[in-house]
Amino acid sequence: MPKLANTLADKFAKKDPADKATFKANAKKYIASLDDLNTLINKLKSKVNGQLVDVSEPVFGYALDYLGYKVNDDHFSKSTEDGTDYSAKDIHGIETDIKEKKIAFFVNNIQASSKTVNQLVKLAEQNNVPVLKVTETLPKGKNYRTWMTSQYQQLEKIQDQATNSAK
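Below the sequence we write its predicted structure tokens.
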């Protein structure tokens, strides 16, 4: 986001040079507002060691990759994204991952659900596999910072639960 904020400030400054200082100051202020979020992300990243996760859809994929998680069900999540049928093999694979606790958690995009995904979420809950609930679009009443922070705070709780149960 800092790169985007600075790029936008530069573009706006070219269109309106008289307000260049304002655009730069606003970008700097916005970037500073993300400090707590970036601190949280780095804290979460420090606790990841290549754990596997399954996802309903790849909407949170870049975040998972950055943190160091490995998505274990690319084909299934691609089917959700493309709106195509799931293969029995993919469904069975996720069910096995959940029942045998091969994954750290299941990521569910709550804005793009299906009967199959809902059944997998229920199975995860029944087997005490955490479910990280994410959205692909900004929820009403939130801004980017509060939206992302709430999703990463959920992940922090999942990590903390895993740490506490391992003791």
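The chain has two domains: 2-33, 48-166.
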